[in-house]
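Section 3.1: Structural characterization of target chains.
Under the original work plan, the team committed to producing a structural model for every single-chain target entering the pipeline before any wet-lab resources were allocated. The record below documents one such target. The sequence was received from the expression subgroup and is listed exactly as submitted; it comprises 348 residues.
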Amino acid sequence: MTSFLISSVSSELVDDLQQKIDTKTKPPGSLGKLEALALQLGRIQNTLTPRLSKPSILVFAGDHGITEEGVSPYPQEVTEQMVLNFLHGGAAINVFCRQHSISLHVVDAGVKGDLPEHPDLIAAKIGRGTKNFVQQSAMSKTECEQAMRKGAELSRTIPHQDCNVIGFGEMGIGNTSSAAALMQRYTGVPLEECVGKGTGLDDSGLARKRGILQKALDMHVEIEEPQEVLATFGGFEIAMMVGAMLESAVLERILLIDGFIATSAFLAASRIVPEIIEYAVFTHQSDELGHSEMLKILQAKPLLSLGMRLGEGTGAAVAYPLLQSAVAFLNEMASFESAGVSERSDGE
C-alpha cells in the first residue's frame, strides 16, 4: 500500500491570522465564509499573506461495469464522447476554466473505448472500465493500488511546479452508483439516503438502482478496510482521484473538492489519511441526493449551493474566485489602524 505522509496544518499563526481578519475595516464576521476561508488558506500556507499560484484542475475519466445493470439512462459510450468534448474545449468545465484562467488537464483513467492521441489528453488507462461490482469487485487490489499511484504521480508532474491550488473533476457514466456505494460503506448511512437520480433516472429507475446497489452491498458485506472498499465499489477515475488528492495534500496544496463523486473520492482519501481534511475547501453542495449528508459527516461547510450536479470539477472552477476574494481582502484591505478609522467600542 502506498504511504502518504500528510503534515498537519500549522496552528502557529491562528491567533495572528484571526487578529488580522478581525482588525480589517469591517464589523467582526461581516465577510462571513470568506473570513473562515482566509483563515484556512493562511493556515495551510502557514503565512499571514497567502497567495494563489497557477491553479489547476485534473479531470479523471473512467467507465464502470455496473452500467450493465441499467443504473444510468445514458449509454456507456457517453463517457468517451464527453472526453472528446473536453478535448475540443466545448464542455462546461472548459468554459469555466477559461473564464478563471485555470489550467485544465484531462486524464483517461479507464475509459472503455480507444481515445485518439491529443496534446491535452493524459493516457493513464488502468483498464477498459471496471468490472460489475454486483458480480465481483470493481477492480483488484493491484489495480486500485496502481490507479492511486498513478494519480499521485500525475499530481506531482502535470500541474505547473508553482501550482499551490488544485481541483478535481470526473467523468464516468455510472459513477454516481460507485459514489453511493462508497458513501454507504464508509459511513453507514442508510442506502436510500445515499442514492440519487444521477444523470436523470425517473422514480422507477431510481428504485431499481437502489435495489441493485443493495444487492452489491450485501454481496460484499465483509469488506471494510478503506482501500479494499475503494477497490470493491470504486472506479478507476475515483481511485486515481484519491491518489491525486492524497499526494496534493503531501505537497501542501489547497484542495478544491467538487460535488458528489469527487467528495466520495475525498471520503475514501480521508479514511486512508485523516489529516487530509485540513487541506480541503469544499466548493459547493451538489443537488445529487447524498451529497449534503456526506458533507455533514465530513463536517464540511461548502462555499456555494447553486443546485449544480454536473461534476467535471465545475463547482471547483466556479468557486475559485471566492478564494481570490478571501486572499485579496486579507492581503489588501486596510486595517482600522492603517485607515485611521475608529474601532468598535464595547462600552455602554
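The first helix runs from residue 14 to 22.
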